[in-house]
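To the structural biology subgroup,

Please find below the input and predicted structure for Site-specific integrase, which we are adding to the shared reference set this quarter. The sequence is reproduced verbatim from the submission form. If anyone notices a discrepancy with their own records, reply to this email rather than editing the shared folder directly, so we keep one authoritative version.
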Amino acid sequence: MSYVVRWVDPDGNEKSESFAKRGRYDLPGTAEHYKHQLEKRMARGMYVDPDLAKVSLRVEVEKWVRRARTETTRYQRRNFANNLGELAPMAIGAIRPSDIRDWLDHLRLGRPWCRGRALGENSVALHFQFLFTVLNIAAEDGVLAVNPCRKVERPARPDAEKTPAEVLTVEQIRSLIQCSNRQTGCMMLLTAQTGLRPSEVAGLRVCDIDFLRRKVYVVQQANHFRGRPPTARLKTPRSKRTVPLPAEANHELSAFLATVERGRNDLLFYTRVGRPWSADGMGQRFREIAVKAGVPKGFTWHDLRHFYASALIAKGASVKTVQMRLGHASANVTLQVYTHLWPDHDSHTVSAIDDIFTSENGNPPGVPGKIDPDFGERRDGDGTAAAS
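Predicted structure (tokenized):
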């Protein structure tokens, strides 16, 4: 015997779902529970077609992988698709927060589908963000009523936030440059003084540098996939930007170009064997030079970019300015990484109040007269009362 729940969807189509047990409204997997949840969703205007919710997560993720704009993004999404584990065959509408927590535990402690190997916290956080995005798209398309990831604590990324102690000093950067050959030194200086990503530095052409106006046009990045063109589209639309070029970097780049043969559309930098640089190759070179320069382990080429951001913040740049210079997709990304570098404004607010109360007339600028102990009045300079 089976129990059937029947209803008419918003489009006027008759639907039904069968259950082995009648159960109760608070007992998942039973007819009464399904009916109760269905009525609640329809009353709130959150109806979801059960047939759509039966599609597997794997199918939805594959669609998302195919929509990737760049090779790098496609590679990251494919890696995520290969790590869905037990979530992959599940109907997207059947995924519960507890299923996601179990999946996160597998990623952290050991993946049964990958010989028990675990992932680092940064990779776990990235995979969770990808799952959140896919399920959010499903919710926006009406496939899900609610994204179950919203009820799961977001994994922390250990390197997501930068503190002053984790930023390279000017002395360390000078030492790195001095221990490099001319080209690598130029690349490091350019990164530290413009904040470009390593792949963006590797993708620069001669025509992307305006020496007269002292500007760098970021329009492409290096492609680290073998067998592909040497350059690729940028990470995000916001990555396409124009960045001011400081005098020192402008001079050093100009002097470097005078020593090599480059056409206008040639890349600025090539390896010793004449190949385009990759972000991975730059990272390896940085580690080698860091040993010679006495820079502590743990720093990477990307920390030259962090130095640039910290310098802007130290000089009072706004969140929006830093976001635009770095090419972040949103101000939230900028704040997530650099919020600890913005100065504490407590002392500034206290000073502002101190200045007001110790000013000549004891009032903020533009407010005449002296403050009267009586909250309801303000007395002008001649002692007469004035309405507040």
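Summary notes: The CA atoms of residues 287 and 309 lie 21 Å apart. The chain has four domains: 3-36, 57-151, 164-328, 346-387.

Regards,
Lab coordination
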